[in-house]
Design a protein that fits this description.
The complex is a heterodimer of chains A (about 300) and B (about 260). Chain A has about 300 residues and is of the alpha/beta class. In chain A, about 35% of the residues lie in helices and about 25% in strands. Chain A has 11 helices and 14 strands. In chain A, the strands form 3 sheets. Chain A has a 6-stranded mixed β-sheet, with helices on both faces. A 4-stranded antiparallel β-sheet of chain A has the order 2-1-4-5, with helices on one face. In chain A, strands 12-13-11-14 form a 4-stranded antiparallel β-sheet. Chain B has helices at about 5-20, 25-55, 60-80, 80-85, 90-95, 100-130, 135-160, 165-185, 195-205, 205-220, 225-230, 235-260. Classes of the chains: A alpha/beta (about 300), B mainly alpha (about 260).
Chain lengths: ~300, ~260
Amino acid sequence: MTETIVVRDLVKRYKGAELNAVDGISFSVHEGELFALLGPNGAGKTTTISILTTTLAPTSGKATIGGHDLATDASGVRRTVGIIFQKPSLDLNLTAEENVRVHAILYGLFPYRPFFSLMPIAYRDRVRELAAILGIEAEMFKPVKTFSGGMKRKLEIVRSLMHRPRVLFLDEPTAGLDAASRHALWDYLREVRSNTLTTICLTTHYLDEAEDADRICILDRGKIVAEGTPAHVKRDLTTEYLVVDAADRDQLRHELAARGIAHRETPLFEIPLDGVGAHALLRSIETPLSTVRTVAPSLEDAYLKVVARS
Amino acid sequence: MTRSWELDAILALAQRDLTKLLRDRARIITTLIFPFIFIGALGGSLQATVGRSAGYDFLVLTFTGVYAQTLFQTTAVGMISLVIDRENDFSQELFISPISRYTIIAGRILGETLVAIPQAIAVIAFGLVIGVPLSPLVLAVLIGAGLIVAFFGGAFGVLILAFLSNQRAANQVFPFVFLPQFFLAGVFNPITVLPWYLDVASRLAPMRYAVDFVRGLYYLGSPDYDRVVIQSPLANLMIIAPLFFACLAIGTFFFVRAERNR
């Protein structure tokens, strides 16, 4: 599969800073993948995305996007990517549609026309289609300064999708959106990915969004501390465990100790499976059990573990 | 990337600046009031005092000076909007787009030129009211010259702005850059005869060439030409053109570098 984003030994140190914001990271993203960059605040996620979208110069290192070298072909990179910024980058004095129109013309999608009504039908249809998906059709001709934070976010999403980019960078795209809008956005992004093989590079603090990623990369203090598929990262960092309890808790406690079965009380008895089958383990316990369930750790559990460890 | 794409982008960016002006009534009123103060108050009082002994009409001298200064300075100061966009994060949207960085700056210069035009129209209207002789031909020449002066002012503004990090710095530095030029460029006062040190300072003031260029075209063929004009419009144009391209190239390079090298 083609590598759409290739990053090698990328370093960024801001002027006057003592530490690198991004500290020699390398990774690659395949065409059509949903790749999630995770990490606590200040981990270097936004800095990485800013470099990869050419708005920030790296201190050292190399990167190519869609085959375009960041250092020698920034214009080619810009034609390839779309981005939803963490901070809204809208002109508050213009209407929503005027913001979208400026974007469409800057990307060469449509010729310049001074009014919406004079723009080509294809433009008007596309604006209406995207606005309808995110439920902001009625607001498209209102000044952006009257918009709520969530509305601004939706408008940025509409704008970034106008030019159908091959690589879409989403820097916390759903921050400030209500649950229904988040679902609508992800449904649409899934559709875009399946129809167009768009590569998506995402940063998010909603780890459930990253569960759907093909691969994740956890950054901390500018370095990569974990990388792989969500399942792989979870498997490496966490263990499935069995939760049991009994009416006679002393008997269960003694039996587990006698059989050398590692466990902890929280206050239920948690027994790490660690390669042992749940069925075999249950068959070996003779104390009558009142509670039995298996727990599969979430990506959030793995994330917290890796961040705490690093 | 085609030439028409770049041109469309310039027009879209210029329309954005004009739209913002038209939606800001307070800014429109302020824009229109300044020329009245400059020409009416300053020109009128100078004509009543030193005008009679000078032998030429100070109102006309002030009118031509203020017309050039208005277009030059309004466009130059308007470029502060580049820094405002940076502070509002809108510059991210501009600088991530695949158009040339020079196209972005050109679009902003054209936009601020359009913003300066209502002010220039107010200057001309006031000139007509106070009896400044303006034939249709002179008006057409003034409009053409005004556009050149505005583009020049915009490029000069970009050069200054490239070295300023924020709006506050720009608001502090711009008056220092422009106030001395009012006098060194001869907006209200003749500078045909100056002490050598002021003459050197005057030659370093870009506004001087803008004012003298407009004035030279206005007074062309007039008996007052030699008394108020320093050098021919062609000679001024030969200075303005390379300065425009130098300011644009150097200003854009350093502005973009400051944008990316944080």
